[in-house]
Amino acid sequence: MLALLARRRAPYGEPLAGIVGDVLARLPPGPERIVEIGAGAGQLGVWLPPDIAARTVSTEPSAEAATTLHASAGALPFASGSVAAVLGLCVFDAIADQAGAVADIARVLQPGGRFVHFLDMATLLEAPFAKLRASNLVPIPNVFGDPGDHKWPLDIVLLARDWLDGVLDVATHAGHPLAATLNATFAPFLVPAPAFDVAAATDAFKALAASGDRRRALAASLVTASRLAVAQGHPPVEPLPFHSARYLKSLLDTQFRAAGFDVELSDIVTRAQSRPRLLPDEAGLRYRSLCVGHQRLLDAPPRRLLAPTATTAAVGDDDILVEAGMFAFVARRR
Fold this sequence. Notes:
Layout: H1 2-9, H2 13-26, E1 34-37, H3 43-47, H4 50-53, E2 56-60, E3 69-70, E4 83-89, H5 98-108, E5 109-119, H6 126-134, E6 137-141, E7 156-160, H7 161-174, H8 178-186, H9 198-209, H10 212-231, E8 240-242, H11 244-258, E9 261-276, E10 287-291, E11 294-298, E12 319-333
């Protein structure tokens, strides 16, 4: 998984490192020791400015990872009030005991110390999917438009389970082939609550999201289903938006404020660069972007660029415009 993430990040290394540097320059850690949690293979360390990297101690709960200290975010081996800042990259959504991690981060930080978390990839989905199941909402990949048309990529839309159950019932009784198609697609999400397997549902979602053909087929099926529903007196489909990165934002905002922190930054931060085409997959491309897991590879710049200051005016015929977007969260301990 770490190797896959490294390959995905490689074309965006310079703007991603620029975002990290910009955030840490704007809201700098103190001059003492800095701790990184969930360091993995060390990607964040590569992006850190040299002066910050030199005094950062990396920790990682997995014994297999080549890091300085084997420790979890909820049991950091540092004295209370001894750390100037705690940093993390794509780690908070993977922590099982988030409240315990927040409490221990608050313990080791000095008054005025900062917790800085970056998210450049999609979040883990098991926790929100479990909550959505309890709310009778069924998540599907956004098959209705480009997720990148929004500041926070709209990667997921939600269908009301009651609507879906009603459409499936109508299609089944009518002998419509749509019933078999939708039943197969949504089977992992329609399991009764006690037997619901969130891991199986997450795997099914990822498989659907990874296939352009399956996404297009689902979009067509939902259009047909909506027409069938209306013809039988049911309401048309009304998908609800769900931004997975904003879900993590809400968790961080709420938990750190409750633990005595002031949230100084909690937003998408972007950066753009124009450079020569360097990679095999860039032949013929004029634009590529990566924003919290959503990647676009295009032969012309999109209608909406990520960075407010980005422009296509300086992109030469042999160049490509590269943009990156991270969710950056900074909270200061009171």
